[in-house]
Each structure stands twice: as C-alpha cells, then as structure tokens.
Amino acid sequence: MAGLMLAAAAHGAPSVYPTGVTRYDPQKAWNGYVVFSGADRKTRLIDMNGNEVRRWDYPGFPTVLLDPALAGGARGRVLVQLAATEKPHPLASPGNGLDNQAIGELDWDGKVVWRWGDAAPDGAARQHHDLRRLPNGNTLVLVNKPHPVAGFDVPVVIDDAVYEITPNGEIAWRWLASEHLEEFGFTAEQLALVRATKNPDYLHVNNLSVLGPNRWFDAGDARFHPDNLMIDARNANFIAIIAKASGKVVWRLGPGLPPIDPKAGQHVPRPVDQFVGQHDAHLIPAGLPGAGNLLVFDNQGAAGYPPTPLQVTSGSRVLEIDPVSWQIVWQYSAERSRQPGWAFFSSFISSARRLPNGNTLIDEGMTGRFFQVTAQGEIVWEYVSPYFGKAPHGDASSNWVYRATPVPYDWAPEGTARSEQAVIPTLPGQVPVQRTAAR
C-alpha cells in the first residue's frame, strides 16, 4: 500500500479517518517489517511505508514467525490457523479456540508444510492466543479444553492447556491450568469467587512464551530456567512462570497488586501497581535493550476476582518490570507522548515488543493502530490498519488487530521489496501526506 486510504471507522469518535502510515522518521525508527493478522482474517507482512510485502490468506491467533534456524534454514515461514470446525461449539466465542480445527506452518508462497489438529485429543486443535516453535522442532500450543471441574458452579469450564506437539503430531508434554489453582496466588476469598464465576473462561490465558536465555538464570535463579514458560491470565490479573520440568508455578506477579496511585505518574523506578486485563507478557529477549525484564501491555480492561477498579484516566499502559525486584523500570502511556491519558487505550487484545534500537513497537489492538515509541515516548512510526472485518461480539465492522510483531529484514527471502520513505505528520485536522518513490 503506497499511500494513505480513508476508511469507515468501526470504533472511536470519528467515522472517517486516515489509515496506513501516518508518520515515519527513518532516522529514529527501527526499520524492518511488521507481521499481523487483520480483521479480514488474512495475514500480512508490511514494510515501513505500509506496503503489503506478502499476504497469506489465513488468520493467525496470532501469526507467529518461524526463525529460519528452526525451519531448516527456510526464510519467511509462519504459523497460522488453517481451518474452523464444521460444527460450532456451544461455548465458542472470538476470544477462545473452541471453533479452531487446525493450525499449520506455511512457507513463503503459502504452501502448508505442517498441520496439526485433526488428531488432537478433542478432535480439533482448539488453539488460541499463542503458539511457539521450540529448538527441538516441537511446537508449543496454547489450547482450550472444555470439561467439568470439581468445585466450579458452571457445569463445563473452558480450561487452558499447553501441549508440546512433535512434528508427527504426538503430544510430548502437557499442562492443565485447573490442576494448579492453588499455585496462582489467590486468597481463599478470591478462589471462592473464581469457582463461583458464571464465566466458564475463568482465567482466559492469553499468552504463552518461552523464557529463553536470561541474566536471572545465569546469576543462579532457577525460576528463570530458559525452558520455563510464562503465561498471562487476562481475567484473573496475574502473570506466572511454569517450570517445564515439574509443571509447577515457580514465580508469579499478581493477582491483588496495590491500586494505581495517580500521583505516581511516570515516576520510575517504583513498585509494581495493579495491571488489569493485561496481554503479551514476556521477558525481553537477550541482546535487546532491557533484556531479562518483563514487558507487558497493561490494558486496564475490566477483570479480576473481585473486579479491579480501573485507573482514573481510563488509559492503557506498557510496563517494563524487573521480575526479581518487582519494580517498574520503564512505562509508556499517552502522557509520555504529550497526549491525554485516554488517547492510548485498548481494553482488550494488544501487544508490545522491544526493538533492537531501544524503541518499543506497540499494538493498540482495539483500534488497529501500531506505533513505535522511543524510550522518551516520542512516536517515530505509526500505522493504522485499513483491513476491516467483523468486530468481536457483534455485527459491527472493525480493523482490530490482536498482535503486531516486528520482523527483521533478513527473515524474509533475499531480495524481498521494502520501502523507507519518510512520512511527515501534519497538523491535526489535515490529511497526512506520504512521500513515496518509485520501487
């Protein structure tokens, strides 16, 4: 997409607004591609000017890049959802995986080179929110498992499970959330509310990541073993680390953190305060600025047992947290970009990823807006998805995007096109102009 488009809005105050790249400073931005699955249920790789570099006609929940080292050296491979079940599950919704039949690996040209789901324990993959390829060639899959759980008021719980799938489709390792309820840090009163909830999706785990090499383990902290897994329970407001060897929860943050103090503002470092409805919790990978710290998108969306009060500004935040001292060491909210707090808000979905130059790529998922900010909060690249589809839980049209992932240029096959033409933002009320050059 070489220029900007105008599209009917599905969310927010304006009914018409610019889409595509609205600002871009090539000198201050980290320059690469971005991959995302749009509301039209297609996956796209775009360059810094918003041009569609590659499209796969499958959705991702999310679309996951495969490191060429884990794909036999092949560049440009992704993990996506391949098929929906023929008969909808009675508890299915856009926020769970109950209607997902199969997941698979696609090559650069869209050919399916691996598929899993038809032989899954429930006859369908039921993958949701995350999946990861491991160095041993196996694939970690976050799935939903509907089944009765003793002590719950609802007759069937939508449980969260993790499977490690071998290339031939066998389950090499499994983990089930309901078997670890006593390890998540709930008080007796909170646990009673969990079991009494009318929502079968009682935890709604929305993230699964592998810790990978990190300075905490190198210093002797076994909780941060590189093979251990991090999960993020949106509806219960906690983040936890699962020991791969035992399945036990060995570290957690939340639930029940102190409420946000509006007077604290952007002051850091400071103790962690209450995140709500959070997404994309992960340790910043080795080699990146802030490596080993926890990065999480704090939606400030309704969640918790009991429901957690939201902050006064009704804005979202991105938090970088020292996972050992439990100190917030960096924070982004709209105020960092000299905007009112409510100018940056997504009550659900969304993501944040640290970039090699110290910038952070943020997906304000509810509005389909991705942007890069510097450590000081300057927005140096911004893109609004022009790809619309059905909004979750209704018939409205929306350009929502669950997750946006930064992609280095050398991930794609050699010779893949890209553009890096500056886009100068204009005054409010004017349509931005993108300066393009022949390709």
Any key phrases for this structure?
single chain; mainly beta; 439 residues; 6-stranded antiparallel beta sheet; 5-stranded antiparallel beta sheet; 31 strands; 3 domains; 2 helices
Model description:
The strands form eight sheets. A six-stranded antiparallel β-sheet has the order 1-2-26-25-24-23, with no helix packed on it. The protein has a five-stranded antiparallel β-sheet with strand order 18-22-21-20-19, with no helix packed on it. A four-stranded antiparallel β-sheet has the order 5-4-3-29, with no helix packed on it. The protein has three domains: 1-63 and 368-439, no CATH class; 69-197, no CATH class; 204-322, no CATH class. Strand 3 (33-37) and strand 4 (43-46) form a beta hairpin. The model is unreliable at 1-12 (pLDDT under 50). The protein contains two helices and 31 strands. It has helices at 188-196, 215-218, and strands spanning 5-8, 16-24, 33-37, 43-46, 52-56, 64-65, 78-84, 100-106, 112-116, 127-133, 139-147, 157-165, 171-176, 205-210, 229-233, 238-242, 249-253, 270-271, 279-283, 294-298, 317-322, 327-332, 351-354, 360-364, 369-373, 379-384, 389-390, 397-398, 404-407, 423-424, 433-434. Helix content is 3%, strand content 36%. It has 439 residues and is mainly beta.
